[in-house]
Write a structure and sequence with these properties.
The chain is mostly beta strands. The protein starts with 6 loop residues before the first strand and ends with a strand. The strands form 15 sheets. Strands 27, 28, 29, 32, 33, 36 and 37 form a 7-stranded antiparallel beta sheet that branches. A hairpin with a 2-residue loop joins strand 5 and strand 6. Helices cover 0% and strands 32% of the residues.
Length: 719
């Protein structure tokens, strides 16, 4: 074998002529210029090496361009351009095979049974195109940065046609879609941070645990919890407003069910054909079959219980103490019976007759237009105090005839007479006389008066209003209303005459409706009467917060014509019929029934000031010596008679009132020249025992012959 050991191209060291013969066994060769074997130039003058034929290298390395390569075993190659290039050692090599038409490259590693390829690159590998591998074994981390999501078994960054084995924890970032079964063979299942322990049955890997949760997150879920020893299961739904919709053609539940409540959009059918149905809004019907009818039972589960079985009827879940409940028979002619075991103890007939087969004991009131007590061949005892006092009992003896009944009626209406005396409008300009009140005695003008120290149970309120600042203030602090001092001093009812504005007002209030307010002193202290150039305003009453309606009054403080256009020009009382739509309102933080006088024209020439020494005005007069109700009753009518020698010649208008609680009738009109008349009240006036009942004359039409009143109140007894 020819051998060349080291070829060093060193120009100017050795120059050989062109040789036509062959040479072998060169050890070191150095020359300048060109080098040729035969007629073939191997090395030209530029140092390029060219060889046609084979070159044999018998050592372990060959140096090309200063790079050392391992001994090649492939013979006959002058470069790496070939369809089958082998790189390796002896019979262990790597073969690169390139198809000459397609360019497909096949790399094969040959050499025994333990060939191992180690491919090292400090900067990593960037492989462009798909790679088909029979298997991958990696000692480090396999990381795929492709972000393609998966929607099936053949999509996503990684997919396999076989199974997936994971020795340690599997973490799924967004979700897992499992087409087949999920087998869990560990001790716990953790969902949203909640741990459930496996059940006691061997071989189960599914939902066996004391507390399994299904839902959206850790706070919104359904939990199924099973007690390990008893097997009792509790199903709990959590969330802000959990509602369960369970849909099936039908349900067959074996065993008893305990429910707190049932809501159904249709009906509930029992096994024997009975139906519970929500027939309409607020109506529940229980229907039996045609053959046996229906029976509704309330039975205790404990047959030895000492408790009661109670049927409660409530129209609005306790929202209204005045509920009305009914037991209605749909067919005509059916009695209502209450049976104790097998004995009927109460029967209510369709005619409204109540039959009680034993004693009737009442802790309250038993009343009716006719109450029939059947003596039953025995005496009947009426006892007013439950036998604590024998003298309070009335014994009705047996009539000796079983067919003879004792009839007791309770039509308990009567007339209460009331001598009212001479009564009409207040024309004497003295507020303490109570104007048109028929008192039957003196008029109380001290109990219900203005109190500048704050409102109490019997205190009259008085507020002044400045339109310029839209502010209300107490009469006792009137001077603080405006910076311009429209109200110069406290206790001034209206602004200064030169500062009045249409809309300025004074209001009087009380915690109950009233029919009169009096002013009896405009002179004490800084007191002063008003003077006017003409009608400057009107009286109104409150119909709600910030709303007012005009009020017809007889104004005894109006020295001009008592219409209320020029008030506070003399002492006296303002009387009126309390309106039916009078409503409470709040002004200056005080709630009351209010009337106000409000400016409609600038006619004030001197502002009125009340007595700022006693500070007790305005006053609501009270007929303390009028008729006191003798018992609890309702006034349903009034009869009036004029005992004056000369009958009144104008229409007399008046109201009937319970002055204790402020309840009044509508205004009534007694015709002129009519000596007596009877009036049925549109609404009965309720009275408790000792409530004060009276009459207020609201308008006498300027009659010169006012009546001397005799009034009779028709009342129905309520006790």
């Amino acid at each position: 074998m020819k051998r060349v050991i080291g070829i060093v191209l060193a120009l100017a060291l050795l120059s050989l002529p062109v040789l036509a013969t062959s040479y072998t066994n060169f050890t070191d060769l150095s020359f300048s210029g060109s080098f040729a074997l035969g007629t073939t130039e191997l090395i030209d003058s530029s140092g390029n090496f060219s060889l046609t034929g084979t070159i044999g290298v018998d050592t372990t390395t060959v140096s090309l361009d200063g790079s050392t390569s391992v001994d090649l075993i492939s013979a006959g190659h002058v470069d790496l351009e070939a369809t089958d290039v082998r790189v390796g050692y002896s019979d262990h090599y790597t073969k690169f095979a390139v198809a000459d038409t397609t360019g497909n490259l096949t790399i094969t590693h040959v050499g025994g049974t333990t060939d191992l390829v180690t491919w090292t690159a400090a900067g990593g590998f960037d492989l462009v195109g798909a790679i088909a591998l029979d298997a991958i074994t990696a000692s480090g981390v396999v990381s795929v940065d492709d972000t393609t999501d998966s929607s099936s078994t053949v999509t996503g960054s990684i997919h396999t046609d076989g199974g997936l084995g994971v020795a340690k924890t599997l973490y799924v970032g967004t979700g897992a879609d499992i087409t087949g079964d999920l087998a869990q063979d560990g001790a716990t299942v953790v969902l949203d941070g909640s741990t459930s322990v496996r059940g006691v049955s061997a071989g189960f890997t599914s939902l066996e645990s004391p507390a399994n949760r299904f839902g959206v997150d850790a706070s919104v879920y359904m939990q199924i919890a099973t007690t390990a020893t008893t097997g009792i299961t509790a199903i709990t739904h959590t969330g802000t407003a959990p509602t369960v919709t369970w849909t099936a053609n039908s349900f067959d539940i074996v065993g008893a069910i305990a429910l707190d409540a049932i809501t159904t959009s249709s009906s509930i059918t029992m096994a024997n054909g009975e139906i519970v149905n929500n027939a309409a809004d607020g109506v529940v019907t229980l229907t039996g079959d045609d053959a046996t009818g229906v029976e509704f039972q309330v039975i205790s589960a404990d047959h030895d219980t000492t408790g009661d079985a109670t049927l409660v009827l409530d129209a609005d879940a306790g929202g209204d103490d005045a509920d009305t409940w009914k037991i209605i028979s749909q067919a005509n002619g059916n009695d209502l019976s209450i049976v104790n075991h097998a004995t009927e103890v109460l029967n209510l007939t369709t005619a409204g007759i109540l039959q009680i087969d034993s004693n009737l004991v009442s802790d309250g009131t038993v009343k009716g237009t006719g109450i029939i007590v059947d003596d039953g061949d025995a005496d009947v005892t009426v006892d007013s105090d439950n036998q604590t006092d024998a003298s309070a009992a009335i014994n009705i003896p047996d009539f000796g005839d079983a067919t003879a009944d004792f009839l007791v009626t309770n039509i308990f209406k009567t007339w209460l007479p009331f001598a009212g005396g001479l009564g009409g409008e207040d024309s004497d300009a003295v507020g303490t006389h109570g104007a048109g009140l028929l008192g039957g005695g003196s008029i109380d003008v001290t109990t219900y008066d203005f109190n500048d120290s704050g409102a109490g149970a019997n205190d009259v309120l008085c507020k002044v209003y400045d339109l310029g600042t839209t502010a209300w203030d107490d009469l006792s602090e009137a001077a603080t209303l405006t910076a311009a001092a429209d109200w110069a001093i406290n206790y001034q009812l209206l602004p200064d005459a030169d500062a009045e504005q249409i809309g300025d007002a004074v209001a009087i209030g009380f915690d109950e409706p009233f029919c009169e307010v009096a002013f009896n002193d405009f002179s004490t202290g800084n007191g002063a009467l008003a003077t006017w150039g003409g009608a400057g305003g009107k009286w109104q009453y409150s119909t709600g917060a910030g709303t007012w309606s005009d009020l017809t009054v007889y104004d005894g403080t109006d020295a001009n014509d008592q219409s209320g256009g020029q008030p506070f020009s003399q002492t006296g009382a303002v009387s009126f019929a309390p309106p039916s739509d009078w409503a409470v309102a709040t002004y200056d933080s005080e709630e009351a029934y209010w009337i106000q006088w409000v400016f409609t024209a600038a006619q004030l020439t001197q502002t009125p000031v009340i007595d700022d020494t006693n500070k007790d005005e305005p006053i609501i007069p009270f007929p303390s010596d009028a008729l006191d109700a003798p018992y609890k009753c309702e006034i349903v009518a009034v009869r009036v008679t004029n005992f004056n020698a000369t009958v009144h010649d104008q229409i007399i208008k008046f109201v009937v009132g319970n002055f204790t609680d402020g309840t009044f009738s509508a205004e009534l009109s007694w015709a002129a020249s009519q000596i007596s008349d009877r009036f049925t009240l549109a609404s009965a006036i309720a009275c408790d025992a000792d409530d004060v009942i009276g009459i207020m004359v609201t308008d006498d039409g300027g009659s010169s012959n006012n009546p001397i009143w005799m009034a009779e109140f028709e009342v129905s007894y309520e006790d």
